[in-house]
Design a protein that fits this description.
Length: 218
């Protein structure tokens, strides 16, 4: 085991599972808003887009303490990974390393798509976002028609898709942590079984030697 032994490993796993489950709960609460845009065969209505837009604006306008709590929970998850990966074992490198990679992918999706999308939706400047980005990198002669900017509907769909990607990434973290628990449990069981077999073989050898000694005396 890595730093601190089994107890610190269990506590670090707790620090990983709680934030991951917390984020999945947040995404599940957004699922009723995302479902009409992505998961139905019928075309989304204007009311669906308006409902999601109003909800996202409300979220973005929430008090700063909400965002601070969210970022603290993200940091708690990272702390759990750092504890488990300090002087890692082979199991930690395999399962926790992959879990950390997925966790960081989720963080990138959050920062690049969700945070940026919330700012765009809250400001209502959908079409201007791409043009300003082109000018910022020095493409001053670019015509607005060369690349079609994302409108309101497409921007909302992208944000809903980002929520789905983030949910899949977080589920992957839970699956890897469950896989690590199962692998370590099987390893402990196999080790105990092997120790029992060795102990039984040792007892059998000792009794045979005692029996042979008794026969020689006779």
């Amino acid at each position: 085991m890595a730093w601190g032994g089994a107890r610190s490993q269990s506590f670090a796993t707790f620090l990983i599972l709680c934030p991951t489950s917390f984020f999945l709960g947040i995404l599940f609460s957004l699922f009723p808003y995302d479902y009409p845009l992505l998961w139905t065969a019928s075309t989304p209505t204007e009311a669906n887009f308006q409902t999601l837009e109003n909800h996202l604006r409300f979220l973005h306008a929430s008090p700063p303490i909400i965002a601070r709590i969210l970022h603290i929970v993200i940091a708690v998850g990272l702390l759990g990974f750092f504890i488990k990966l300090y002087r890692p074992s082979e199991s930690n490198m395999l399962f926790d390393g992959a879990s950390l990679a997925l966790y960081m992918c989720g963080f990138v999706v959050y920062m690049a798509n969700i945070v940026k999308g919330l700012r765009v939706i809250s400001g209502g400047r959908y079409d201007a976002e791409l043009v300003e980005g082109e000018l910022a990198v020095g493409v001053k002669g670019a015509m607005p028609g060369e690349e079609k900017p994302l409108g309101r509907d497409d921007s909302l769909k992208v944000l809903s898709a980002s929520n789905t990607i983030l949910a899949l990434v977080l589920v992957g973290v839970l699956v890897l942590q469950a896989g690590q628990w199962y692998a370590e449990r099987k390893q402990i069981q196999e080790t105990e079984q092997m120790e029992k077999e060795i102990a039984a073989a040792g007892k059998g050898t000792g009794s045979t030697q005692r029996t042979g000694g008794a026969k020689k005396k006779v």
